[in-house]
Design a protein that fits this description.
By secondary structure, the protein is mainly alpha-helical. It has three helices and no strands. Its main location: membrane.
Length: about 80
Amino acid sequence: MDVNWVVAIIVGGLAGWLAGILIGLRFGIFMNIVIGIIGAVIANAIFDSANIHVAAGWPGYLVQGFVGSCILLFIAKIVRR
């Protein structure tokens, strides 16, 4: 397994977990990883289109994953109502 994938999984899981705590929704470790990775992709697209640059490396991935995860979890919280 490539090291980048391992880092993406770990950072994505951490970002999803932190966002779950902030938003108040927790789906378990697997869904936290998925939400964190998808959130990072979404946030990356948003940041690129707005010409916003965050830190390079895993801190940047963590910030992007956290922001994107918060967006996804906020939407999920609205849909659950």
